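I'm stuck. Please check this protein.
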Amino acid sequence: MKNYVSASDVLPENLLCEIQKYIQGKTLYIPAPKGSRKKWGHVSGHREFLMNRNAEIRKLFQQRITVDELASSFCLSHESIKKIVYNTKA
């Protein structure tokens, strides 16, 4: 489990008392406000890495590199390569 912050350390006493009417002695998750969360992979850069990799795979496929060769080169399954090269959303 991730580190947690004690509510008594960060919340005003009146708010803490109000929350205690609903939950006591349990872990409570408070989500970030809508719109403030970043999508998966944006912080780590992994989303951009995959987008660049997939663009390279599509480019090579257009240059007549076979699905078998691409699967071997990129250590991906044939099905994964097919999903990448035949994806019309990219």
In short: Residues 7-85 form one domain. The first helix runs from residue 7 to 10. The chain has a mean pLDDT of 89.
